[in-house]
Write a structure and sequence with these properties.
The complex is a heterodimer. By secondary structure, chain A is α+β, with helices and mostly antiparallel strands. Chain A is 28% helix and 24% strand. Chain A has 3 domains: 165 residues, Aldehyde Oxidoreductase, domain 3; 339 residues, Aldehyde oxidase/xanthine dehydrogenase, molybdopterin binding domain (Aldehyde Oxidoreductase, domain 4, 2-Layer Sandwich), CATH 3.30.365.10; 149 residues, Aldehyde oxidase/xanthine dehydrogenase, molybdopterin binding domain (Aldehyde Oxidoreductase, domain 4, 2-Layer Sandwich), CATH 3.30.365.10. Chain A has a 7-stranded mixed β-sheet, with helices on both faces. Chain A has a 6-stranded mixed β-sheet with strand order 4-8-18-17-16-9. In chain A, strands 21-31-32-33 form a 4-stranded mixed β-sheet. The longest helix of chain A has 28 residues. The chains are: A alpha+beta, B alpha+beta. Bound molecules: FE2/S2 (inorganic) cluster (2 copies).
């Protein structure tokens, strides 16, 4: 078997000569994945296992009159049928937070409402795709046949589709007891009236994004098994948050003494869509409890499109107080987010996050925002790579473009004039976040150079004379990573357990998990360096709540920030213990010792040595030799607390929620073909700064993948509901994700400003790229069409919408 | 079910038999009946290519064929690509170029690329892009996959030249 990881420095590497961190090592994960041994949830089989399928609402908004499951139950092979009204008493509504804490946003005087949604609809359905009934059968085909036999009667209600209409008095209500459709109202910042008085002019713009989402190629899936004697429920779930899921399940299925173990096996991509608490996650376990047999459910792509979270889709009404030379003194934003049905899947946190970060990379001292999240008859709204920050950057980067246009200034120059400067770090933003480090002018300068900005400006002028439409788009996107929010499950720490067995093999167990990021590789790199053991002697275990320390999983690019820090400090602590024991075995002072490739020796007499196995055997089998105060075994757990987030609001009610601030400067050159409306990307440059890198190949992979997510949202992807609330984009046939045909050869570069708040200097690396392409490509297209006076109003930049805009503008432009 | 059919399919070089419903999809035969779970399912509209296998040497989306259509044919799945515990040069190239992240699309990508290389030992970049246009990947952004297929072509050609 090929093992180039070994050649690249795994075996025989030493701490001094072969640091692993910083090397682009091939991944430990890959051989299994390349040979078909991945073992995702869908691949698991248990003895006696049954299959579940779900009958989902075909109606966007309706009263549920009757669900008749008799025919479905009568189909040979069907074992169990269940509707919402038959839920056992021990099932309570889905809860957004453990311990029913329903007031997570203490700052900002929020109005926040939570409806009681059960895992199956009982009286009312509120979106196409809402689970209404479940069937369990001996195989997948029979379960799907049985769903066809479910009969349900609905009394249709008027649908709520447009978020602005939904806010009007007299609009139909999703939740009658609310009295309106306002899911959340939140205010942040302080009014900068003074800034608006001092301004030369006030620029008002409406910036609107579209609804799109992550669509991992592996849809969601759950396998559940219940062992009644121990009251032990084991769930294998394609989730980003195994521990949180176990807690939420123990809270939702109130069987006295119930214990839940969640195992997240190999996961086929998450991107935020597997961060949340979905009805199926308690429904499938419930079916296993009721049927007494293991039950598996694997989401189909059609189900995924209608029932797994959507994201983005915000309207920003911005007012900027600017000076004639393009400085932005103050900013007000009124945000409306189309939050879909009010499920506890993280959407509100994403919207609040948007409101915190609209000022972006700019030193805007006066900022105020009001957010209204509106409930509509659409699938729930939640996390998607770039969580809320993508929406903030979209608003500000589009606004800066408009400011430059209005003032007749170069859009790059307007950015340089407003940037937070390198010497300003750590920078406290108007909403109280502490930006750790960065150099925005340097990143943009580099991006402009790589794009040959001046040359293209000249080319643009030349082509304009020939009636061709070339445009240049610019953006500098700050994408805060690693979040904390007290009172939610997003609680600002990361735990790592390190165990060395008597044979010297190293086991690293964490409270995170992996959806393709390559933790087994990067954690091994960190531990190999810090501890001084071979890369291949390290096994990383994540995603099993029984074995691993508690943790809130993977999201917000938190691994390289808090996760890697916990790994480093755990390894340092373990190293200390190993050296202490070795000191006794060698009869030498601890301070004179070091460890490389599992060999502990006296620094200036390398022949005087013991092995890690000698130390480990002592720690397990000869504990009488252990020095005073040293516990048996080589086992410890390190809890890392994030030092750069806040747990209490300051006097202005502000809490720094994000720990570090990676960013990405993008420049795009496009040509718009007026006859077809096609946008050709001629050049796309990205200069990314995520601090130090653990594995540059993995960072590059994450970054390109993220850019392509952004490209999809900018150019192709849109979730569309018609005016009756029916979903029109129910498959990959109408929801277009980029293929290999569409992806440009990005020009990439990195800038490194180490994060001063983490031991490794790392920032988050997985999401930043997602943020840039929507605003940058819109800016480029708007720049191209400037001679026609066209403002791009809509994402995605589809040929038809651009062609329509051009056709409308051409007569005007004469 | 009432009308089971007997089929014989040579899968990764081994003769396999099955009693299947006529409506059983080939992908489910491979996964559920034969336990070859390396072939994945990512959609229900023949769009994603996660299920790609070779049938008689040609690439096929196995979610869009019935098991009975494979009767008497030869199927290669991702489990049959590495030989004697050695990764195929294409698989090696995927690893070296970091052409996979979550790995869910990977088996399908490998099979599509394998098919391309079997017909065209020196594909251009645009031919590679076209050959994998029916395989969706949400993690990598494709560029490293394209690089891996290029690198694999080089490896295979060097190896051929050496023989
Ligand atoms: S599963 Fe076959 S094409 Fe998607
Ligand atoms: S590697 Fe995850 S979908 Fe391709």
């Amino acid at each position: 078997m090929s093992d180039s990881g070994r050649e690249a420095g795994g075996h025989g590497a030493t701490r001094s000569s072969g640091r692993q961190v910083g090397l682009a090592l091939p991944r430990k994960e890959d051989i299994d994945l390349l040979t078909g041994r991945g073992t995702y949830v869908g691949d698991l089989q248990l003895p006696g296992m049954l299959w579940a399928a779900i009958y989902r609402s075909p109606m966007p908004h309706a009263r549920l009159r009757r669900v008749d499951l008799e025919k479905a139950a009568g189909l040979p092979g069907v074992v169990l049928v269940l509707s919402g009204r038959e839920l056992p008493d021990y099932v309570v509504p889905l809860s957004p937070f453990p311990f029913q804490s329903r007031d997570p946003f203490r700052a900002g005087n929020p109005t926040i409402k939570f409806p009681d949604h059960f895992c199956l609809a009982r009286d009312k359905v509120r979106f196409v795709g809402e689970p209404v009934a479940a069937v369990v059968a001996t195989d997948k085909y029979i379960a799907e046949d049985a769903v066809e036999l479910v009969e349900a009667d609905f009394d249709p209600l008027p649908p709520v589709v447009d978020p602005e209409e939904a806010l009007k008095p007299g609009a139909p209500l999703l939740y009658n007891d609310w009295g309106d459709n306002l899911f959340l109202r939140f205010r942040v910042g302080a009014d900068g009236e003074e800034a608006f008085r001092q301004a030369d002019l006030v620029i008002r713009e409406r910036i609107r994004s579209s609804r799109f989402t992550g669509t991992p190629i592996e849809p969601r899936g759950i396998l559940a098994r219940y062992e009644p004697t121990d009251r032990l429920l084991t769930i294998w779930s394609s989730t980003q948050i195994p521990h949180i899921l176990s807690t939420l399940l123990e809270d939702t299925l109130r069987i006295p003494g119930l214990k839940v173990r969640v195992i997240a096996p190999r996961i086929g991509g998450g991107f935020g869509q597997k961060w949340g608490y979905y009805p199926e996650e308690s429904l499938i376990p419930l079916l296993a409890i009721l049927s007494g047999r293991p039950v598996k459910w694997i989401e189909t792509r059609s189900e995924h499109m209608m029932a797994t979270i959507h994201a983005r889709d915000q309207i920003h009404d911005l007012e900027a107080a600017v000076t004639k030379d393009g400085r932005i003194l103050g900013l007000r934003d009124r945000i409306i987010a189309d939050a879909g049905v009010a499920y506890p899947v993280g959407g509100l946190a994403s919207i609040v996050t948007t409101s915190m970060f609209v000022p972006g990379a700019y030193k805007i001292r006066h900022y105020q925002a009001e957010v209204r999240a509106v409930t509509t008859n659409k699938a729930p709204y939640g996390a998607h790579r770039g969580f809320g920050k993508a929406d903030a950057c979209f608003a500000i980067e589009r606004l800066v473009q408009r400011v430059a246009d209005r003032l007749g200034l170069d859009p790059a120059e307007v950015r340089f004039r407003n940037f937070i400067q390198p010497e300003d770090f750590p920078y406290i933003s108007a909403t109280g976040s502490r930006y750790d480090s960065g150099n925005y002018p340097a990143a943009l300068t580099k991006a402009l150079e790589l794009a040959e900005y001046e040359k293209w400006r000249q080319e643009q002028a030349r082509l304009r004379e020939q009636g061709r439409y070339l445009g240049i788009g610019i953006g500098l996107m700050v994408e805060p990573s690693s979040s904390t929010r007290m009172g939610s499950y997003n609680s600002g720490y990361y735990s790592v357990t390190l165990r060395i067995d008597p044979m010297g093999r190293v086991f690293v167990l964490t409270g995170g998990n992996d959806e393709g990021q390559g933790h087994a590789t990067t954690i091994s790199q960190l531990v190999a360096d810090e501890l001084g053991v071979p890369f291949d002697d390290i096994l990383v275990i994540e995603g099993d709540t029984l074995e691993c320390p508690y943790g809130s999983g993977s999201y917000a690019s938190r691994f390289s920030v808090v996760g890697a820090s916990a790994v480093i400090l755990a390894a340092r602590q373990m190293r200390e213990k190993v050296l202490k024991i070795a000191a006794v075995l060698l009869g030498e002072p601890e301070a004179t010792l070091t460890m490389e490739t599992s060999r502990i020796f006296v620094k200036d007499r390398p022949e005087k040595a013991v092995t890690l196995v000698d130390v480990a055997k002592t720690a397990y089998y000869a504990i009488f030799r252990l020095p005073e105060g040293v516990e048996p075994e080589l086992l410890l757990t390190y809890h890392y607390r994030d030092p750069n987030v806040g747990f209490q609001p300051d006097e202005h009610g502000r809490v720094p929620m994000f720990s570090t601030f990676p960013y990405d400067a993008n420049v795009a050159v496009v040509e718009v073909i007026p006859d077809t409306g096609q946008v050709k990307i001629l050049k796309y440059v990205s200069v990314h700064d995520c601090g130090n890198m653990i594995n540059p190949a993995i960072v590059q992979g994450q970054h390109v993948g993220a850019l392509v997510h952004g490209l999809g949202g900018a150019m192709y992807e849109e979730i569309i509901y018609d005016e009756t609330g029916q979903l029109l984009t129910g498959s990959f046939k109408d929801y277009f994700v980029p293929t290999a045909m569409e992806v440009p050869n990005f020009i990439l570069d990195h800038l490194v400003t180490p994060n001063p708040f983490t031991p490794g200097g790392f920032k988050g690396a997985g999401e930043t790229g997602t943020v840039g392409p929507p605003p940058v490509l819109c800016n480029a297209v708007e720049d191209a069409l400037k001679p026609l006076g066209i403002k791009v109003q809509k994402l995605p930049l589809s040929p038809s919408s651009i062609r329509d805009a051009i056709r409308e503008a051409l007569p005007r432009a004469g | 079910m009432s009308s089971l059919r007997s089929i014989r399919v040579r899968v990764n070089g081994i003769e396999r038999e099955g009693q299947v419903e006529p409506r059983l999809l080939l992908v489910d035969f491979l996964r559920e009946h034969l336990g070859l779970t390396g072939t994945h399912i990512g959609c229900d509209t023949t769009s994603c290519g996660a299920c790609t296998v070779l049938m008689d040497g040609r690439s096929l989306k196995s979610c869009t064929a019935f098991a009975v259509q494979a009767d008497g044919r030869e199927i290669t799945t991702v489990e049959g690509v590495a030989a004697d515990g050695q990764l195929h040069p294409l698989q090696e190239a995927f690893r070296e170029q970091h052409a996979l992240q979550c790995g869910y699309c990977t088996p399908g990508m490998v099979m599509s690329a394998l098919y391309l290389l079997s017909r065209n030992p020196n594909p251009t970049e645009s031919q590679i892009r076209r050959a994998i246009a029916g395989n969706l990947c949400r993690c990598t952004g494709y560029l490293n996959i394209i690089a891996a297929v290029k690198a694999a072509a080089l490896k295979l050609n060097t190896r051929r030249a050496a023989i």
